[in-house]
Amino acid sequence: MQAAADIRPGATPRELRCEGAWLLRSAAQVEARIEAYLGALAQPVEGELLINAQAVTALDTSGAWLLHRMRRALEVGGCTVRFIGLRPEFEALLRLIATRAAEPAVTPPPAPGVLARFGRNAWEGLLGALGLLSFLGASATALMRALMQPRRIRWRSILYNLQTAGVAALPITGLLSFLLGIVIAYQGAEQLRRVGANIYIADLVGLSMLRELSPLITAIIVAGRSGSAYAAQIGTMKVTEEVDALRTIGIGPLDLLVLPKVLALVIALPLLTLYTDIMGVLGGMVMARAQLDVGFTTFINRFDDAVSLTSFLIGIGKAPVFAVIIALVGCYQGFQVSGSAESVGHQTTTSVVQSIFLVILVDALFSIVFSWLKL
Amino acid sequence: MNTAASTPATTTPDNVVEIRDLNTRFGAAVVHRDVSLSVHRGEIFALVGGSGCGKSTMLREIILLQPPVSGSIRVFGQEVIGLSDEQALPLRRRWGMMFERGALFSSLTVTENVAMVLREHTRLGAALIAEIAALKIALTGLPADAGAKYPSELSGGMRKRAALARALALDPELLFLDEPTAGLDPLSAAGIDELVRQLRDALGITIMMVTHDLDLLWRAADRVAVLGDERILGNGTMHELARSEHPVIREYFYGPRGRGAREQGTREQTWNRK
Predict the structure, then answer these.
(1) Distances from the Cα of A279 to the Cαs of A290, A298, A322, in angstroms?
(2) What is the mean pLDDT of each run of 10 residues along chain A (375 residues)?
(3) Which of B1, B95, B104 to probe by mutation at the A interface, max A CB count within 10 Å?
């Protein structure tokens, strides 16, 4: 191994000796030694100071930087510094460092205060809402244009999205709504048995699943599965400039990336909801027979009376609205990605949170409107 | 680094990279067939060849990103094939790699990209790390305010320089450059030529690069190997290769673009001598 880098006083007070290998791996020690030396200088050296670098055996940019920095500190103190004995190649390196050296980057401005941050977040939130609204408008216009020229609708892409967002979601949505049906029936069974109203299990499961829970759970699962995928796909395409490329080729990103997803989801989500309706009620039926001795036939007969067609249609009718929300929010957040990989992750998260939030909010609005209309 | 004289004797003094009988295949497609070459300490070595001839693949094999089918690759005298990540760490600290498309961490600023390497591998104070990072950024010719920017805010040429700054973070003894000038305007590319030569002269590092850029080859490369037909077609200085009779090499150097670059390069070398 080479001798560690070091500095020590030279023969005269006007001389300083540098020795050893001035490399990155010993930079921490050298820095400490230089600090100690500069600190020990009670008064600034005046006149000329010689730095004898004859014994420097190796030098890299970090070592050269430390030498350069020491020289600068001494010169600020008021003396002139001259290097002697430095190998020509080291001298060249030191010169290169001195000419290219820059002040360390300016420190970022201090973090804004609570009020400023609150204001900025509120402003950004408002801008985001307006952005989503204008995105909805742009997509609607694109849809109108596509409907005028049906040949421009990308059927292949719609079919592909139907497959990935619809068919591929069948197992998970089916399983979860079946379990949900079981849970509801199980929770209700105890109460109903107490008042001897076992048969009303069909009302409980049927109404809650068809009207509220099945559309909601399906929308939430699809938002997590497909909404996030939309955001990540479009976001990555933005990072790699594929979206710009599309625009350049003359293909509207909305036509190719957004419309097929929205249309496919508007078709897929009601169908998925119908499917989860069936699975959820099946779960309830299984539980009703196990806990309340309500047989399948009895259950179905009562179900027919208890659940009106309106209730079923209300549930199914919410699904396309949820579908539009999920697809648009996912795509919109994808387009909001800027530059970095971290941004893709951030916008994907935002898309899921935002679409679930909006789905539940709209569901609540639906409830208010329906009770108002006495449906 | 100027440590050649006193580095431990475990390394072969002149060959920093030594490749013997390298074979690479992707499925049925043969990329390298018994390729051998060596890179000497302190030289600027360039690997050239048509697109898809396996230049970048060879680079990736040397820096342990991809295993070859068979053969031997020795870096600093140590066999790298089959090394675990842990065993490779000391080697990885001694080399720097600049990727073709920069591969900067997009969620970090340029300064943070460079500082991250230093923080990971040294125990320097935050202030010194910031200074060294700023120095590396300045060395590559980036303006001082570029350090605070994110890679997505930089132009292609600036991104290349930032990637170079990160590759230089640990003062590597061996620097790999994958297409250092691809996608740059002539002025930026000329800046890179200059920089590569300056780095070698000032720091004594060994540089191995993959490039298509004939100007860069004439101006900076000490030795060039031409890769084609799964093997090395020619190996030597640019002037030696320019005299080669091999049809592919002749095509490469005497095509319409090759001639211009050669004349320019020769003119400059004469001029430098004056």
Answers:
(1) 17, 18, 20
(2) 74 81 84 82 71 84 86 81 84 82 62 89 92 93 89 88 94 95 92 89 92 95 95 92 84 89 95 96 93 90 91 94 96 90 91 95 94 86
(3) B1
